[in-house]
Write a structure and sequence with these properties.
Elements (H helix, E strand, L loop, with lengths): L2 E5 L3 H13 L4 E5 L3 H12 L9 E4 L10 E4 L11 H22 L4 E4 L4 H12 L6 E3 L3 H15 L6 E2 L2 E2 L7 E2 L5 E2 L2 E2 L3 H4 L13 H19 L4 H16 L3 E3 L2 E5 L6 E6 L2 E4 L2 E5 L6 H20 L3
Parallel strand pairs: 1-2, 1-4, 2-3, 4-5, 5-6
Antiparallel strand pairs: 7-10, 8-9, 10-11, 12-15, 13-14, 15-16
Helix pairs in contact: 1-2, 1-8, 3-4, 4-9, 5-7
């Protein structure tokens, strides 16, 4: 038996619950929201589709219903609005995280916590500090979504299965993120050389986009989607569902999620950001030290510094 509690029944939280039910990720899923009626409605809507899904159950609840949770996913917070600075958003959502932390950890002290709320690296850092939950059991979704967007675009660009694309976005889930091209490859061939190395492929075409254009696409995708449909939630729900599935299966997997840094990369310390981390049954079980270039190491330090500026500017 496995149990996941999701705090926040908005578009992201509800879609995570829906995706988990479709995949049979957990035996029991609890939806908690300050708007109880919203959580009840989302849970019932999802539950009524379960006859054609793996056997599990989903229901709305309160913090005390999180007892026994293996994983707690936190999506609560407000989205960034026009005219709102990044710091304004950070402080508002820090206050939300501060109010949630003591209530949920009281009932689920042994759970692995996955933070989704933005700015996710800052929120993950704050949650760990105010909750006291060990660092290995506090994980931010970080650049896993950015990495998914990158792999999707590379797959489309080179007309190759996404399963053959191994590329990573490191750093902040935000403006200072970067693609670690030096350790990215397609079927073991560097992304830069792939089109030159493939021969006799009947449907092989020249790459449609340059690598810089692909990076721009990855960074602008969120805004592009929000302009057209108001929010992004399907892809991040898939990312969270994947993380939870791996944790509950006890499978150690390397993912670009946000974890606490302790100088594994020089100059990057006491900050949550994304590098390649090993995630297992009890949360973070190791780091994969990638041989990134010196230029990329400098980008990681810059990303760390930018996050620290925000962390030092908020009150928690």
């Amino acid at each position: 038996m496995s149990k996941v509690t999701i705090i926040g029944a908005g578009s992201v939280g509800a879609t995570i619950g829906y995706a988990m039910c479709l995949k049979g990720t957990a035996s029991e899923i609890v939806l908690i929201d300050i708007n109880e009626r919203k959580a009840e409605g989302e849970a019932l809507d999802i539950r009524q589709g379960l006859p054609w899904s793996p056997q599990n159950k989903i229901h709305a609840g309160h913090y005390e219903d999180a007892v026994g949770s293996d994983i707690v996913v936190i999506t609560s917070g407000v989205p960034r609005k026009p005219g709102m600075s990044r710091l304004d958003l950070a402080q508002i959502n820090v206050d939300v995280i501060k109010s949630i932390a003591p209530q949920i950890t009281k009932y689920a002290p042994d759970a692995v916590y996955i933070i989704v709320s933005n700015p996710v690296d800052v929120m993950t850092y704050v949650f760990q500090k105010v909750s006291g939950i060990p660092e290995n059991r506090v994980i931010g979704t970080g650049t896993l979504l950015d990495t998914a967007r990158l792999r999707t675009r590379l797959s489309e660009n080179f007309n190759i299965s996404m399963k053959n694309v191994h590329a990573y976005v490191f750093g902040e889930h935000g403006d200072s993120s970067f693609v670690a091209w030096s350790v990215s490859n397609i079927s073991g061939i560097s992304v830069q050389d792939y089109s030159k190395k493939v021969i006799n492929k009947t449907n092989m075409t020249q790459p449609e986009f340059t690598l810089d254009e692909i990076v721009d696409h990855v960074k602008s995708s969120g805004s592009w989607i929000i302009e057209r449909k108001g929010a992004t939630f399907y892809a991040i729900a898939a990312c969270v569902t994947h993380i939870c599935g791996c944790i509950l299966a006890g499978v150690d997997i390397a993912l670009t999620v946000s974890t606490m840094q302790h100088g594994e990369y020089e100059g990057v310390d006491d900050v949550y950001l994304s590098t390649l981390a090993l995630i297992g049954r009890h949360g973070v079980c190791g780091k994969v030290m990638m041989d990134i270039s010196e230029e990329e190491r400098e980008k990681l330090r810059i990303s760390s510094d930018k996050l620290k500026e925000v962390i030092h500017s908020v009150k928690f």
